[in-house]
Amino acid sequence: MSLSLTTQFELKPGAQIVEFDSSTHEKSYRVELADGRHFQVNAKLHTVLEILRTPLTMPALAAAFQQHSGQSIALDQLQQLNQQLIAQGVVVEAGSNVVDAEGSSNLPTDYLGLQYRRDLLSPAVLAPLARLLQVCFNRGVALVLLAIIAVAHVLAYREIGFPPDLAMEGVSWPLFYGLFLLTILFHELGHLAACHRWHCPHGPLGVGLYFFYPVFYVDVTAAWRLNRYQRAIVDVGGVYIQLLFVPLALLLFWLTQDPTYLMLIAVIDLVILGNFEPFMKLDGYWLLSDLTGVPNLHARTGEAAKRLWAWTLWRLGRRSAAPAASAFGQWTGWVRVVLFVYIALSLVLWPLLLLAMVPLIIDAVLTYPALWQTAIAALIEANANGDIGAMLAQLNTLFMPTLTVLTPVLLLRVSWNRMRKDRKAKTQSAMQPQPA
Fold first, then answer.
1. What is the chain's alpha carbon radius of gyration, rounded to the nearest angstrom?
2. What pLDDT band is residue 99 in, cutting at 50, 70 and 90?
3. Do 82 and 11 touch, CB atoms closer than 8 A?
């Protein structure tokens, strides 16, 4: 059974379609739904969706598409396409009151995404601070500040040494943790300030768990509407603002001779270096994605691995037909080279990372009860002595093992939610009328 030819369909109310700056040969667009989901579409599908801003039947849609594009489309193909768009919630029956399932988009289904998230500060609270910082993104101001940061690093590492050689016993850990958290807050504000520089709206600031690491995040989803250069500035905006603490910390060290400020500089640099690795969904991942104009790098890696496996089976005679052409053909030459290297490294690094994580998790689980007993006794003693530093040190020893133990629980939760999502999608697909 096919969709009724007399029923009118339309683009889902609240959906927005914006041009997407990518490196594909063909112009592409981004469909943004009110529930937070988004899809990348090509020019032909963009034409179909733009036409469906006005409710139309399938025959009327086919005629309108030919009028707008000069190309014909078979009615049965258009019906199949419309069924897919209905299943994804992009197209609805005209006049239907479709309500998005509340919270459905918050279920974690990505192993490399945030497994827990909690908003802390609203966009309205963040906006005044972000607007103050946006002056740092003016070209002249940025060049001066980057020069100051560079000079401060040279002078700081004359004090720190390279590799760093710091007297740990002289560090005030409460002061260090307080200042470091402040730099992280300003890191997130840097992303928002870059958004304000390009007049781009943003969402709240919150805290989440990424694998077994606690992270702050800001919602800059709307930055996808910017061009690739502007998106790249948003990506590095956090690092740039966080680095402004280096000259400030160096000045405070000169005034006080407190090694806490040198420790702060060394840790900021170490964290920033880790933040630029492109395989986890950190700033480096988004920067590589935006510079190449290829969204969903992890998805591209998975697709490439599946195609490689299918191609191998075909060459061994275990598969009757060669796998379909990959998406690589739509990218420019240099982008294909970058993606090939990225995918090759991913296929090597991810299995090694997973193998390395297994013994760490097992060891953390086995030693966790004894660790708690020792830490509680030490906390009681530190509390009795009023030693806040010792208390913080014990809490620090518990922190990472606790998150490591939680990791398999979080990954199981993701697997469960993915199975629920896949089951729901199959159920909805089965309920859709199929072409005769």
1. 26
2. low
3. no
In this structure, what are the phi and psi dihedrals at residue 375, rounded to the nearest 5 degrees? -65, -40
Do 15 and 43 reside in the same domain of the chain? yes
Q: What is the distance between the alpha carbons of residues 384 and 380, in angstroms, rounded to a whole number?
A: 6
267, 357: one domain: no
Does residue 2 lie in a domain region?
A: no
Share of the chain above pLDDT 70, in %: 91
Number of domains in the chain: 3
Q: Please say which residue of 292, 309, 343 terminates a domain.
A: 292
Is the same domain home to 350 and 410? yes
Query: Taking a C-beta distance cutoff of 8 angstroms, is the pair 211, 234 a contact?
Result: no
Q: Is 379 contained in some domain?
A: yes
Tell whether the model's pLDDT for residue 10 goes beyond 70.
Answer: yes
In-domain check, residue 37: yes
Residue keyed to tokens 């697709």: 303
Is a pLDDT exceeding 60 seen at residue 106?
no
Same domain, 229 and 144: yes
pTM here?
A: 0.82
Number of neighbours of residue 188 by Cβ within 10 angstroms? 23
Q: Round to whole Å and give the CA distance between 412 and 364.
A: 17
CB neighbours of residue 414 within 10 Å = 17
Average pLDDT over residues 95-110: 56
**Distance of alpha carbon 258 from alpha carbon 252, whole angstroms:** 8
Q: Is residue 317 included in any domain, yes or no? A: no
Domain holding 61: CATH number? 3.90.930.60
397 vs 380: CA distance, rounded Å: 15
What's the rounded Cα separation, in Å, for the pair 149 and 34?
A: 41
| Model pLDDT for residues 34-64, shown as the tens digit of each residue | 877 888 888 889 999 999 999 999 899 989 9
pLDDT at 245: 98
**C-alpha dihedral sign at 312, 317, 323, 329:** positive
Mean pLDDT, range 335-357, rounded to an integer: 85
